[in-house]
Design a protein that fits this description.
- Strand 3 and strand 4 form a beta hairpin.
- By secondary structure, this protein is mainly α.
- The longest helix has 25 residues.
- Helices cover 57% and strands 9% of the residues.
- The chain contains six helices and four strands, in the order αααββαααββ.
- It starts with 11 loop residues before the first helix and ends with a strand.
Length: 140
Amino acid sequence: MIVIDYTDRRPIYEQVVERFQSLVLCGILEKDAPLPSVRNLAMELSINPNTIQRAYTELERRGVIYTVKGKGNFVADLRALLTLREKEIREEMWLLVRKAKEAGLSKERVSRLLDAAWQGETADAGEAVQESYVGGEAHD
């Protein structure tokens, strides 16, 4: 369920948070599904229970899980997580659009690149730049 990458520079609790978020977004963990207890998950991953508690606290702060006293932790309504994820993506898109404008790419070119990315296609970076710039002017 959760795999820790010890070569990753991020703290372990952040990896746990990210992995649980992914499991929820993919539908593997559904609304109101119980999470493993702090103690059980810590033993399973061979890490300190405080690390798991910190991850669960962060997940609860983000609205991904909720706690029922004496019962454990459960997956919260997916809408809160989707709203958070959409906000993060929107912020990243604003940065990318700004970079594209600064680089002189046209709106049409950026739209085609987005469509290709959406379809899972990859294009040679040189080809993308060559198509967008002719004679020092950006166009399509």
